[in-house]
């Protein structure tokens, strides 16, 4: 582990405002995370965001973003989506992983939204997570973007980066979520995912993170980092 006493002595106090400001500058040139990019292109309803998140599960943004656009151009509302057959949805989303179960899940969400919620998904995490295939990550991210809910979405990048900083000490994404909810200022709850997904993909990568050129090296405790670049 790189967080030895001597390394600690060289570090500045960790200041989340400074860290996120520097990362905001750094990720400006990287592609936006898929769901934020979709919202920027006008697909910002809760239904559209939830569909996009389901499509992004275990699929790279480079694949899930164009696939989401293909599907949402064909059917962007629950009513329009419910009129498609699951097989038609599957054909449209073929490039993502698990197209068959994802098509069935999206169709089921559309049908239930029409039947139970008059065609409009409520901004309610419990309702969203009652749908098959929707976990806390997708529910929180969709609610944050579409409903302005202050919710932290912890995916593998947010989990890895915040633990390397030493900002939280947690073994699982669920524990990281609880720790961040206790510590992170609310103003950053939605933005954190938007910043740390591209930062985790390009700078604080899973193996050989680019610590030597990282904008927050002076504050990051580099917990668990064995082979920095
Ligand atoms: S790249 Fe290195 S210095 Fe930067 S946040 Fe990740 S572990 Fe810390």
TrEMBL record:
Residues 55-202 form the HhH-GPD domain. Keywords: DNA damage, DNA repair, Endonuclease, Glycosidase, Hydrolase, Iron, Iron-sulfur, Lyase, Metal-binding, Nuclease. It comes from the Bacteria. One of its GO terms (molecular function) is oxidized pyrimidine nucleobase lesion DNA N-glycosylase activity. InterPro entries: DNA_glycosylase, Endouclease-III_FeS-bd_BS, HhH-GPD_domain, HhH_base_excis_C. One of its GO terms (biological process) is nucleotide-excision repair. Its cofactor is [4Fe-4S] cluster. SUPFAM superfamilies: DNA-glycosylase. Belongs to the Nth/MutY family. This is Endonuclease III. It comes from Hyalangium minutum.
